[in-house]
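P.,

For your records, the input lines for the assembly:
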Amino acid sequence: MLTASQLTSLQAILPADRIHLDAETCERYGQDWTRYTTPRAAAIVFPMGIEEVQAVVRWANAQGVGIVPSGGRTGLSGGAVAAQGEVVVSLERMNRIDGFDPLARTVRCQAGVITAALQQFAADHGLYYPVDFASSGSSQIGGNIATNAGGIRVVRYGMTREWVAGLTAVSGSGEVLECNLGLAKNNAGYDFRHLFIGSEGTLGLVVEATMRLTDLPPATTVLLLALPRLADIMAVFHAFRSALTLQAFEFFSDLALTHVLAAQQATAPLAERQPFYVLLELETAVQSQEEAVLQVFSACLEQGWVCDGVIAQSQQQAKSLWRLREGISAAITPYTPYKNDISVVLSRLPQFVARLQGVLARDYPDFEVLWYGHIGDGNLHINVLKPASWALEDFRHACEQVNGQVFALVAEFAGSMSAEHGVGLLKRDYLGVTRSAEEIALMRGVKAVFDPNCIMNPGKLLA
Amino acid sequence: MLTASQLTSLQAILPADRIHLDAETCERYGQDWTRYTTPRAAAIVFPMGIEEVQAVVRWANAQGVGIVPSGGRTGLSGGAVAAQGEVVVSLERMNRIDGFDPLARTVRCQAGVITAALQQFAADHGLYYPVDFASSGSSQIGGNIATNAGGIRVVRYGMTREWVAGLTAVSGSGEVLECNLGLAKNNAGYDFRHLFIGSEGTLGLVVEATMRLTDLPPATTVLLLALPRLADIMAVFHAFRSALTLQAFEFFSDLALTHVLAAQQATAPLAERQPFYVLLELETAVQSQEEAVLQVFSACLEQGWVCDGVIAQSQQQAKSLWRLREGISAAITPYTPYKNDISVVLSRLPQFVARLQGVLARDYPDFEVLWYGHIGDGNLHINVLKPASWALEDFRHACEQVNGQVFALVAEFAGSMSAEHGVGLLKRDYLGVTRSAEEIALMRGVKAVFDPNCIMNPGKLLA
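Structure tokens returned:
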């Protein structure tokens, strides 16, 4: 899809081993985990340093070719898809970790460093990189930054945004920008670091970053609680959070449990089933905190908010409980789920869910809808499963109808149409749910400043 | 300085009590704590709501009049100065705190809420607003956000940036922007919240914000340590930080102590004087942590890093020790200090200070130079005192020469020319020390998107 002259000029600026044109590589690197779009990449390039990234960006500007920045391609919004003949710039060969600073507790990562490799590096130095999620074994730091990745520890440690002390980006016009220099304090003008974080590759490519590390977490206790009523979930949250430090506060519905138990061939963790479950991980560094766990658990039982629960008695049991939550996504993959990832302000969440349940039950009685998510952050993943008898196209069409109703409610509750997955291609046309027309116009203006020829991840985030 | 027609049109959009034209008000609201520039404001307006702010911004666009957003005017870089006939928009009458959400632990503040009022509000609800500094009794939340205020707890809690869940801004073109909606998680496009934070009123006015609160801090222990050599300060930092949680790690030189003792008519806290002092506040919630304080203190003495020290035995004594650090700025005000506020990466700080001390001693032997600051953040305040015999103009001229050498070194060490005070008017011409020409050009581009007619805080941050 590149012209002969475009290809010749690309080959003139990069060594031959950096450029792959074969169909298999183009297919593999042209898509992410969404599998919603047919990949159609013109070429995949694997630059080995900032200068090579810069050369590719300048080439793309000169040739008018679109670029798709590419990390671990674990995204769920189509942000890393190349479906229009773009050149994919994979940063996977730029995977060096160096420049560890034990005083500042920072470390320099090239964009292609795998999340788990940074976690391991931190552990090897007696420290902790706390951003964690199911894809940590293949997602990359550059992609995490470009999408401001969240995950299961946000309630305690925040999003990726909080852990970036500095980043180096190549802008859409090919300039190398050193954003924040890894400093703890720097009030010298607009913070372009935070503008690049979460910009989904539409302003430029994040090529390196200085990541913050922190203390190892203390000992923790893991609990699974069963709730008869969703309306009480925030009372449970408040009771535990007032007494203890939460490391995680996750949620799933009984239907989600059914699917994960079937997929894992596991037995139910509690004798009786209830409509909702909460998985908590609590910091219990000292005896008094362990006692507080029991006290709050008892109080929740007494109040009737919780009607059963289990406290993990071993690391092994804690892992088993976590597997129930973390296994949901894999368990439902065969059902071609249609995913939404929304958030509202915490106190409005139960009301939001109740309203949405009503709408879905009324208008889409044929669909299985699974609820789970990082409820301590106000973040819900709503997954609609495809009935076996439905054709994929019909199902997708119906889901777009569902979206209309989901997002109308998100707008009414002043929530986010994408809490952590980003906007990408799949959610692009719903951006107006959360951002005003004026803000979207300003976003276009900002993009034009960094990427005047619109070569960066064209069609993602902004139409 | 407004034409009759400009004034008439302003009076048409605001009630009469919102507009003040008298010389006293214009002088008072036309300057900040710097006192470096002669105030020359055309008018001071006191809007009572977002619509009134919006009306003023639209009026300013139509009339081509500059606007200076105004909070508590406690800034130290001239960011809130009106010296060119601008209209000052004081937000002090917009000082409502409401919308407390105990689940999300957030509260809605209008821009004019005094920092101490938010701290008190949090305390009244069993929570904590941790951003704190000497000016908390008069600085305002809007100004804190516009300048990303730091202070004495950054090593533990970060800058103001970390505590803003959402903000409402009126852009330079008069649009009301709802940035981040107070959500914990929101990956729906560019984060304009972070762009406004620290933008010093050059993109628009922050009119409201949703601020995060947190748990009350645990019991703490305050220590003052005396160090013979600056080179050892980071070893002391590392030793305490590895064993305990730091709430503060502050630093001052013996000359700073001399001035503060004289101003406060206090006696020295330690029997012998040493060149450098470190003030620590450590979390000591449990007995084992109190023991750890003693152990690390002993270890520092054994290593020779520290040669004397005192551990506060009461709240009263802790306050006295803190007064030594917090009183420095007031103590030297009579000496018309020339202030710099720089930061470098923590591990390079001792080398930076040693180099800079050498330069200053060689080239400016007549000047008293005080060193103090938030050294746990890599942030130093370098204050040059005016010798009594020097004329103010000559001193300022000489200090600008000093700046050349200070900033050359900051650039060499890849540090920030403004760690927490911001750029404003006074540091504007040094922005290139920390930001590249390409970045400054991009900053101009971004400003043009939000403030196309350049009415917002003209001449601040960007020339």
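Two observations worth noting. Chain A has a mean pLDDT of 96. Chain A has four domains: 4-90, 97-215, 220-329, 336-437.

Regards
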